[in-house]
Structure formats: structure tokens, C-alpha cells
């Protein structure tokens, strides 16, 4: 697991479960249900929607939306789903754009937090092409300190791959991490950290920024 995030991830999931009982806002409830699964929870829902988007329109109608929520085992009744759908279907077209949906679902972050996340991303993205791959990590991340590398269980590439998989959604690990995926992951972590100052210190320490 990545420097300093496993604990935050757990704390965030526990906090999300706790807050679920208090909130009546349907969008917030959906957000918290995703976050209760950890930082990759929102991204996981995005992947479910992407798989369902057969015609690659990047939009969902209400039926697809409900099916996606069910496939992802979200506890939401039809009325609540309708209410959420209405919030996202701003133009009343009967479809929602799921990139917009995921951005809105993501816990809001201050500019300062987004900047430090992007700093970490740029540091990892050695090739500067906007995607972090195993190639990028070779130049930044020393696999030789990893216990599984030391005891001979994993090769260097397997260490890198496991590291990238942290940021990827559980269902579709492709060994590539985009800016959006990195942001989504840290939006989850960020949700459990109250102050910008603490979040920034954590990021600086984790990534030696």
C-alpha cells in the first residue's frame, strides 16, 4: 500500500458509514455509500457505468442508471434514484453525462489540495504524457525496499503494478493511471482529512514534494 494512505482510507470509510445515518440529501448519500468502500469507490461506480455504456455515448438514461447502481450494490430505492437522476439531468433530456456525474459525486476539494495532488502526479508522470505507467515509476519509485521484492515473491514490475493498482478501480486494472483516476483517488482520501494544511503535509511527506 502506498505511503500513508491505507490508514486514511480506513478512517474515511468508517467516517462515511457514520455520516450515512445522518444525511438526507440523496446525492450525499450516494457519495457516502461509494466512499464507504474506500477511496476507489466513486471510480468503481464510474467503471460500472462505463461497462454499461454499450453505444459509447458516455451518457446514461434512467434505466441504465438504476441498473448501474444495482450492479454496484448501492442501497438506493427508486424514488431516491429518481431524485438523484433529476439533479444530474440538468437540461431535462432524460440522460445524464456520466463524466459530469462522477465529478459532481467526487467530494469537493479546495484549489490548494488539487494543486498538491497535481504536483504529485507530475512528479510520477516522468514522461509527461498525462498517464502514469510502470515505465514512469522506474524513474521515481524504488522497488528494492518493498518487502515482497526483498523476499523474492515479486519482481520489480510486479511491485510497480501493485502500486498502480491502488489508484485503479477494482474491476478494470489496466496498469495505467490517468489524471482523473489519481484525482478521484485523492478526493476520497481528502474527504477524511479536515484541514488543507494537514492534507498538504501528508502529500508532501508521501511523495517527497
Automatic annotation (TrEMBL):
<dbReference type="Pfam" id="PF13499">
    <property type="entry name" value="EF-hand_7"/>
</dbReference>
<dbReference type="InterPro" id="IPR018247">
    <property type="entry name" value="EF_Hand_1_Ca_BS"/>
</dbReference>
<feature type="domain" description="EF-hand">
    <location>
        <begin position="40"/>
        <end position="75"/>
    </location>
</feature>
<dbReference type="InterPro" id="IPR002048">
    <property type="entry name" value="EF_hand_dom"/>
</dbReference>
<keyword id="KW-0106">Calcium</keyword>
<dbReference type="GO" id="GO:0005509">
    <property type="term" value="F:calcium ion binding"/>
</dbReference>
<dbReference type="InterPro" id="IPR051581">
    <property type="entry name" value="Ca-bind"/>
</dbReference>
<protein>
    <submittedName>
        <fullName>CAPSL protein</fullName>
    </submittedName>
</protein>
<feature type="domain" description="EF-hand">
    <location>
        <begin position="112"/>
        <end position="147"/>
    </location>
</feature>
<keyword id="KW-0677">Repeat</keyword>
<keyword id="KW-0479">Metal-binding</keyword>
<feature type="domain" description="EF-hand">
    <location>
        <begin position="76"/>
        <end position="111"/>
    </location>
</feature>
<dbReference type="InterPro" id="IPR011992">
    <property type="entry name" value="EF-hand-dom_pair"/>
</dbReference>
